[in-house]
Amino acid sequence: MDSIVDFYVAQPFWIWLALGVILLAVEAAFSTEWLLWPAVSAGVVAVLTAVGVRLGFGIEVLIFAVLTIAFTLLSRRLITRVNPTDSPDINSRDSRLLGQRAQVIHPFVDGRGRVFVSGAEWPADLEGAAPEIGTSVIVERVNGPRLTVRAA
């Protein structure tokens, strides 16, 4: 332990840089989205100590903590502004299909047929008049693995 203290006294930059790299590695490995900003804060403190600003361990820890809290809160505000919660999830294929044009690839018999949309073939239920093969329909609803479509 004394060797770490001696190393910190001689070069605090390396301790803060190591902490930042470790936090960043854990973030990259587990994608928690919570360790990015502490890693950045440790990097900022490392740069401060590298340029010769020696504030002492207590003040450096305080700067690290304040920066971590500030960066985390600011990033949450930015994320909610950029990605509002009422926007559809880009990973939800079902919600992205709503309103899309699909092409009829199998005739509708008794209101059931098949359509091609978003690079995949889907079973579909039809609302309204039966369209011909190759015509466009609009996706109205997603019912599990089936789409409900209407004539375009």
Which whole number gives the mean pLDDT? Answer: 88
Share of residues in strands? 15-25%
- Runs in which pLDDT lies below 50 for 5 or more consecutive residues are none
Global geometry: rod-shaped
Give the biggest sheet.
Answer: 5 strands, mixed, barrel
Number of strands: 5
Number of helices: 5
Percent of residues in helices comes to 40-55%
Order of helices and strands: HHHHHEEEEE
What is the terminal-to-terminal distance?
73 Å
Helix/strand class: alpha+beta
Fill in the keyword field for this structure.
five-stranded mixed β-barrel; 49% helix; alpha+beta; 152 residues; single chain
Write the topology of this structure.
Elements: H1 2-10, H2 12-30, H3 36-50, H4 57-82, H5 93-97, E1 101-109, E2 112-117, E3 120-127, E4 136-143, E5 146-151
Helix pairs in contact: 1-2, 2-3, 3-4
